[in-house]
Every structure is written in structure tokens, then in C-alpha cells.
Specification:
3 helices; about 25% helix; four-stranded parallel beta sheet
Length: about 130
């Protein structure tokens, strides 16, 4: 059964090993699936969540397009390096800025756990080190 797959290259550096892995994944999956790729190195946005979650911060065009790709996808693959024990700051910023209340989840009055808005999706994370 064909799926809609979004591959995210989470290395902020172009022409990286992660980018090679992402492109190889896309080529292999494209035979049977509908596949899109997002390269973090090509996205233009402020990764800093300036006000935390206390006040809205307008999303740049690349972040709005990224959210549309997430909504489109049935399966999301993130390929990222591990730097200093964590993911690159720009990838963390992408997550902080886009997986927001009203998009990824929704708080509900009287409930401790928010409602999930991105249900029925699967994912895979591929992490590289050294």
C-alpha cells in the first residue's frame, strides 16, 4: 500500500552525510510511495522561540510550508546528526516553532493531557554519530 512519506534532512549543513542518506531514502521509497523531502539547510526562519509559548510568534513562509508537508504526510522520516549529545539547534528550533498548540496538539479545558491533532501518522528517526 502506497504511503505519503515526508523525509526531513535535519542537518543544517548542506551536502552532508545526512543529506546523502535522505536523498537515498527518497530514491528508494519513490518507486512505491509518494515522497517529499525537506532539507533543513534550505529553510529560512528564526529558530529562536523568542517569547516561549506566552505570546504568538508569526511563522515564516518556510515554516508554514513545513507544517503543510507534515499535515500531508502519513509517515515522517527524520534523518539527523547527533551533535554534543543532542540534535542540531536549528532542528530543535524547527520543532519548537512548528509543533505548536493548534497544530500538533490542542489544550482542552479540564483535561490534563492535550488532544493530539496529528493522529494516525507513523515516524522513523535515523540518527548519525561520528
Amino acid at each position: 500500500m502506497a504511503k505519503k512519506i515526508l523525509v526531513i534532512c535535519g542537518n543544517p549543513k548542506a551536502q552532508s552525510f545526512c543529506e546523502h542518506l535522505a536523498e537515498t531514502y527518497v530514491q528508494a521509497a519513490a518507486d512505491k510511495h509518494s515522497v517529499r523531502i525537506v532539507k533543513l539547510a534550505e529553510l529560512n526562519f528564526d529558530p529562536n522561540l523568542t517569547y516561549g509559548y506566552r505570546q504568538p510568534q508569526p511563522l515564516e513562509a518556510d515554516l508554514l510550508a513545513f507544517q503543510a508537508n507534515i499535515q500531508w504526510a502519513e509517515h515522517v522520516v527524520i534523518i539527523t546528526p547527533i551533535w554534543w549529545g543532542g540534535i542540531p539547534a536549528k532542528l530543535k528550533g524547527l520543532i519548537d516553532r512548528t509543533f505548536l498548540s493548534g497544530f500538533a496538539f490542542q489544550y482542552e479545558k479540564g483535561k490534563l493531557i492535550p488532544a493530539k491533532l496529528l493522529r494516525h501518522k507513523t515516524s522513523r528517526i535515523i540518527m548519525t554519530m561520528d
